[in-house]
Amino acid sequence: MAKESKIITNLKSVRESKGMTQQELADRIGMRRETILHLENNRYNPSLEMALKIAQVFGLTVEELFELRRKEGL
């Protein structure tokens, strides 16, 4: 049986450190502000394309923004 994983992000702290609002980031990558909110609260896993676009906005790698962790208890 495969272990389940969850993507954890530090997107909120990176975005805030750059002085960018959720709406500004959403506009830059062509998404809704609510999607950014869900990403920041680890309620939504980004597609690879979305993760790459966000990383490019901040000049970072995907790995610097998102981390794959195994869910606890599995």
Automatic annotation (TrEMBL):
Residues 11-65 form the HTH cro/C1-type domain. Keywords: DNA-binding. It comes from the Bacteria. It comes from Streptococcus panodentis. The keyword DNA-binding applies. This is Transcriptional regulator.
